[in-house]
Amino acid sequence: MPATVIAYIIRRLFAAIVLLFVVSAVTFSIFFVTPKLLGATPETLATRYVGRTSTPDTIRATAEKLGFYDPVVVQYWNWVKGIFVGADYDYGPAVEHCPAPCLGYSFRTNQPVWPDLLDRIPVTLSLAVGAAVLWLLAGLAVGTLSALRKGTIFDRVAMGVSLAGVSLPIFFTGLLSLSVFSYNLGWTAVGGAYTPFLENPGEWAYNLLLPWITLALLFSAQYARLTRAGMLETMNEDFIRTARAKGLPERTVVVRHGLRGALTPILTIFGLDVGLLLGGAILTESAFSLQGLGKYAIEGILNYDLPKVMGVTILAAFFVVVANLIVDLLYAVVDPRVRK
Amino acid sequence: MSHIPEDSLDSGAGLPFLQVRNLRVHFPTDDGVVKSVDDLSFSVERGKTLGIVGESGSGKSVTSLSIMGLHKEGAARISGEILLDGRNLVGMDREKVRLLRGKRMAMIFQDPLSAMHPYYTVGAQIVEAYRVHNKVAKQVARKHAIDLLARVGIPNPKSRVDDYPHQFSGGMRQRAMIAMALSCDPELLIADEPTTALDVTVQAQILDLIRDLQQEFDSAVVLITHDLGVVAELADDIMVMYAGRAVEHSTATDIFNSPQHPYTWGLLGSMPRLDRERSERLQPIKGTPPSLINVPDGCPFNPRCAYAGRNGDLSFTERPEFRDIGGGHHIACHLPTEDRHHIWDEEIRPKL
Amino acid sequence: MSTPKPAGELLSVTGLRKHFPIRRGILQRQVGAVQAVDGLTFSVNRGETLSLVGESGCGKTTTGRLLTRLLEPTSGKIVLDGRDISHLSMSAMRPLRCDVQMIFQDPYSSLNPRHTVGTIVGAPFRLQKVRPENGVKRAVQDLLELVGLNPEHYNRYPHEFSGGQRQRIGIARTLALKPKLIVADEPVSALDVSIQAQVVNLLEDLQDEFNLTYVMIAHDLSVVRHVSDRVAVMYLGKIMEIADRTSLYERPMHPYTVALLSAVPVPDTSRRTRRERIRLQGDVPSPINPPVGCRFHTRCWKAQEVCKVEEPALAELAPGHRAACHFPENVGGSV
């Protein structure tokens, strides 16, 4: 690997780390500084841990132990430290050790956040990756065909449907498909069930099929439009004319020369979308009652359970940054001009 | 209807490799029918070079794309005949035309940077061109690609074969394009403005290369350009096009030494020349090229022609026939022979 | 009405350099520079046309951008009409934009498609807050007429015009503030041959009428000979040869100039066999690591050892004729 490529990778990695810190700082500020600005005192925050019935003294003591009186910077530092080396929470009678990566304890359940997140990652991961494969294939196929048949009935119908697909909200398409395919026709699983892939791949897919399709419908619509626009541009490039002049079969021209050229910008957006989804597909998970990260976040929000929300947010940010990094590196693979 | 007797331009023995007869390429658009090529006939023999000269919109590039069958299906209405080695390409099954493309006829384009795929190595693109028409192993094709790169003058072909187009200089890229076009030994090579995007010293190298290769491969070459200097370097015959039609067609020597059409005079007068004393003033053609949707009645060149008034109203009402004025020299002009000779000798030649 | 020709220097350039840094590695440290323009010295007199010619990468376009101060020079001095403009800030440069104007190559991308011709040509008045005597509209119409366009087309949009007409619009805009110096970057190379001649003639007529001073940037040696009073041949950021037109074209001294001239295709078939050609090998080297010594030595058929080590000075080998070569041609004045 040439030195320039290594330098490129290191630079990207470095940028990703910096970005993560920035994101965490911003997230931290949003969840811990904003309430303060809105009038929350350390005591009201501590109340969330110990409950309203506690005496003011207990509350104050808890606030003290949780570090709510410290300056924000110190609190942030402790929080970051928790992620890297773990933290000890002193609840008075007992000191609980929260091993790294420690994202704090849920206000509600008093359970550490990280193991909860770990439980839910496979669900969200299965949902996101499965849907991503579906929508990428569907989007690329429909988009390419639309571009090649620009202005025909196929193109118009496909683009009309995809406009609808982009516009229709998940909770509508999700609930509708659930009621038709699961409850009425009984073809697919009713929501809520999740079987780990390693346990039973067939069951895994069967349970996730409907959520995949629902989620993929939304995204494939957008990808079909992107692919169509990209293909229309690429197919007008000079190198396409060259490929035809060589006598290549049209299929080779379209796939090897056209699609390959149009793929780069789609790749960028794909990486970001998958990264975002890994942080939780809130609507889909809710509609199909999947115990994923999105559902977890929603619970956190509804209960004003800050550590939960914070945990999902930072994990989501992590996924987005990592996805971005992978896209950057893939760029160098796809487009030799980037490697310079 | 044909304006040219079929045997008029190919006086030599044997059938010309490429014959174009009464070619029309029309594009229906919302504003009307764009008549990009209208009743065009010419032919090229093996081992000969035909230069097609014209300005933008003259139909020269559309002609070349029609020969190659590269117009989008349905977009262009093509009629007439394009005979490649006696077989008519117009109306031929698209798949059959595809199998001829790259094998028996190949094309070089103007801008080698945009004409090569940025994501594949130069070698891969040549290998691809070779393997479409020759069922050989990848390694064999790669060896062939390296040989071709060496033949077109690329140093270190063994390592350059794995470079990407952006790693080549402009001249090297055009050499690689030529290597790609030659990969299957085509009998017809169409070069569309092959040197326009290149620097003048590199242009000279590429023109030399095309000339050498033609002698080696004995192919028929169609050279399309706006630059009269470039055709003078390579062409045996020259056809001057204007508004989708041929206005003059003869040997290169004739075109430069005794051009007979006012448009050709105009082109020669417009360009400053290094081989003449510097003139005080260029003699431009007035006006601008016509719209191909509303081509002027009569002679399409009449609004810009300084001599259109000399034929009564003939130039404004009747399309001049493209006819032989002796020795295979064809023009489409109403001016009587004596007038033409007189104008050329007295008015045009002294000013060039 | 033609103004009497005030003689003397309008523009003087000394040791002009522009290096574009190249950053590499993890910390993006500067590891080198594209030496786009590397020490130019020349001057332009009032009312004359100086052309900069050369192949791509020779730095002619960068020079044009430096002269109009669209770029800041790395070092060197640009004096316009007695005033040093080398490092003027954007705001200090603004009033001087009346004096220096630029004509661009591509008449398609250099005109804003959403503005009418009137707005485009009138823009300099607005930007410089100049109020023409009879109002902007009248002034614009006069300008349109001057460049051979119909003044009634004031309200039309650029796409309604052909390439040649657009270039005329660009020229009209350039002339609005009666600039002292016009830098024209390949003004005709995007145009068809017949239209090229119209625009060349127009530029010459305008020069005669307003005593304009042009710096033309071009690659077409035939056009350059036609329009220029003096010509500078550039190669890899340096001037190889500079002379008045006749001297340069009839007695080129630098081998590079000789090669350039011999490479120009000529519309005459009889020359095909007769002509003694000099064919340069290879391509122009990269301006990142230009050859040491004479920059042309890697492609020069006359190169000797000395050319690889010692850079020849741009010396005056005949009156008004300078060339940077250890072994110049046509010296001794016997031609």
TrEMBL record, chain A:
Entry membrane topology: Multi-pass membrane protein
Membrane-spanning ranges: 12-33, 123-148, 160-184, 204-224, 266-289, 309-334
ABC transmembrane type-1 domain segment(s): 121-331
Keyword field: Cell membrane, Membrane, Transmembrane, Transmembrane helix, Transport
GO cellular component terms listed in the entry, alphabetical order: plasma membrane
PROSITE patterns in UniProt: ABC_TM1
A single GO molecular function term of this UniProt record: dipeptide transmembrane transporter activity
Subcellular location: Cell membrane
Family annotation (CDD domains): TM_PBP2 (cd06261)
Family stated for the protein in its record: Belongs to the binding-protein-dependent transport system permease family.
Name recorded for this polypeptide: Peptide/nickel transport system permease protein
From TrEMBL, chain B:
Domain ABC transporter: 18-268
Pfam families tied to this protein: ABC_tran (PF00005), oligo_HPY (PF08352)
Family statement drawn from the similarity comment of this UniProt entry: Belongs to the ABC transporter superfamily.
Main localization, broad class: membrane
Keyword Hydrolase: no
Stated name of the protein: Peptide/nickel transport system ATP-binding protein
Family matches, as InterPro entries: AAA+_ATPase, ABC_Ni/Peptide_Import, ABC_transporter-like_ATP-bd, ABC_transporter-like_CS, Oligopep_ABC_C, P-loop_NTPase
GO cellular component: plasma membrane
One MF term in the entry's GO annotations: ATP binding
One BP annotation, GO: peptide transport
Superkingdom of origin: Bacteria
Gene3D superfamilies documented for this protein: P-loop containing nucleotide triphosphate hydrolases (3.40.50.300)
UniProt keyword terms in alphabetical order: ATP-binding, Cell membrane, Membrane, Nucleotide-binding, Transport
CDD domains (alphabetical): ABC_NikE_OppD_transporters (cd03257)
Record's subcellular location: Cell membrane
Protein's membrane topology: Peripheral membrane protein
Automatic annotation (TrEMBL), chain C:
Span of the signal peptide: none
Superkingdom, natural source: Bacteria
ABC transporter domain mapped to chain residues: 22-261
One GO term (biological process): peptide transport
Alphabetic keyword roster: ATP-binding, Nucleotide-binding, Transport
Organism: Actinokineospora iranica
Name of the protein in its database record: Peptide/nickel transport system ATP-binding protein/oligopeptide transport system ATP-binding protein
Family indicated by similarity: Belongs to the ABC transporter superfamily.
Gene Ontology MF term list: ATP binding; ATP hydrolysis activity
